[in-house]
Specification:
Layout lengths: L1 E2 L6 E6 L10 H9 L3 E6 L12 H18 L5 E3 L11 H14 L3 E5 L4 E3 L2 E2 L2 H16 L19 E5 L5 E4 L4 H9 L2 H7 L4 H12 L11 E8 L3
Parallel strand pairs: 1-9, 2-3, 2-5, 3-4, 5-8
Antiparallel strand pairs: 6-7, 8-10, 9-10
Length: 236
């Protein structure tokens, strides 16, 4: 397994929900911000349907605040929420347009996306939102560089990223995160209220188990801790 290219300066992470980034990939983000790279986050929803017993009008602002605090732990200060409905994200032209616009606004060389396959592992179905956002996001990387697909975005100059990398089980490349695992732990722990609703286990125990699972060694990659990505090349 090869090292993910790091010959870029600005990265944009696109995910469906608050906490998606923190399930391991924040360790790579922490590495990159320590290297001086400019990393920004775009979240398609505010995660407002994610806490049982808490109405969306209350949960949305809470989860946005947790995400902003979580991002700050790993050196990210620009966090944008697009306002699509949590749990009901549609893979359609409206989503592609909104993501293409975000790519044009932030002008990344690297776009980071998350697993958009049907499953996480055999027998574990992936979220419909994850599938929609990942697939639309990959299309939007190309859309952002084409002036004719969404003419209504004419006020935003077309932009072509060089790479897209998808975090998930189909990894072709990896990033050594041995030095930033603890930053990832602290970043995920900022989602305290959300994690408390997921399990009766102490938040600290949940966080450590999640990070240990998602940043373990990768086959053929010489690092004790790593995050894996599937790499795509574009023309930027």
């Amino acid at each position: 397994m090869e090292q993910l290219p790091e010959d870029w300066q600005r990265g944009l992470v696109i995910v469906a929900h608050p906490d998606d980034i923190e399930y391991g990939a924040a360790a790579a983000v922490a590495r990159w911000t320590r290297m001086g790279k400019d990393i920004r986050y775009v979240l398609v929803t505010s995660g407002e349907a994610g806490i049982a017993g808490m109405p969306p009008a209350q949960a949305g602002p809470l989860r946005e605040a947790e995400e902003i605090a979580s991002a700050a732990v790993v050196g990210v200060t620009e966090v944008e929420f697009l306002g699509h409905p949590d749990g009901r994200v549609r893979e359609d032209l409206d989503l592609r347009r909104d993501l293409a616009a975000a790519i044009r606004r932030h002008r990344p060389e690297m776009v980071l996306l998350f697993n958009f396959g049907d499953t996480w592992a055999p027998g574990f179905v992936n979220s419909a939102d994850h599938r929609a956002v990942g697939r639309a996001g990959l299309d939007a990387v190309s859309d952002a560089g084409n002036e004719w697909i969404f003419p209504e975005l004419a006020e935003l100059e077309p932009w072509s990223a060089r790479y897209a990398a998808v975090a998930g089980p189909a990894a072709t490349h990896a990033v050594d995160v041995a030095d930033t695992v603890e930053a990832a732990v602290a970043s995920l722990a900022e989602h305290r209220r959300y994690l408390e609703a997921l399990s009766d286990e102490p938040v600290e125990s949940q966080v450590r188990a999640i990070i240990d699972m998602t940043t373990g060694p990768k086959p053929g990659f010489p690092a004790e801790r790593a995050v894996g990505f599937e790499l795509y090349h574009f023309g930027g």
